[in-house]
Amino acid sequence: MDPKHLRDLLQSVESGQTSVDAAVGQLRDLPFRQLGFAHADTHRHLRTGFPEVIYGPGKTPAQIARLLEELGAQGVTVSASRITPQVALEVQSLVPAARYLSVPRLLVLGDDPLRDKGRGKVAVMTAGTSDIPVAEEAAVTCELDGNEVIRIFDVGVAGLHRLLAHREEIEACEVLVVAAGMDGVLPTVSAGLFGKPVIAVPTSVGYGASFQGVAALLTMLNACATGVAVVNIDNGFGAGRMASLLNRKR
Q1: Which of 47, 90, 130, 193 is the 20 to 30 A CA-CA neighbour of 41?
Q2: Which helix (H) or strand (E) holds 7?
Q3: pLDDT higher than 80, residue 56
Q4: Candidates 3.40.50.1970, 3.90.220.20, 3.40.1440.10, 3.30.420.40; CATH matching 121-247
């Protein structure tokens, strides 16, 4: 139940169109629904403006399917992250309306929201093409939260002219999400060039001494440019959600 549905229900009770008992029946699953294996947080979008996202690893396809149905029962668009193609097929056999986005590895149930909640655009950028899956998780998260997203991929510092070619597009955005592995320098460079909040996303892309993203993480935490905030390694979802909050209309 989203805020509009809740308001409509209360107005219906006030006008006498819906009985108190009927309203209680509709509200019985607030603030959560006990499923045995999980407490589905059906109240989260009312508290925070964004529904609970199902983290796929460690859950069976049947559990993911049940959570998608329960969390999306009142018309809220919901998603499950880090879903492999095989698990997606099994979930879709149980929830045919769910659609699979293979690059960000997301299952989505529900309509695409209108992209009218942000005061401007969010730029999602990558240093290399290998960073795209994490960046796409961030981009789709922003879009599911009602933001317009500009994607600018493969503009790392090994060829800085590629980044500068997109200068006007980037300056027209309100928030930058910058994903990079290996040396992890692109967020610092972006913060030094553009007066925008930068959400840095270290990725696990790189050779041995990158330590699966630890090297990029440490580079980003030690950024000499101001205005850089860092999320965890490969945490595209967290970066997308933070970008959406920063971009929210007041």
Answers
A1: 90
A2: helix 3-15
A3: yes
A4: 3.40.50.1970
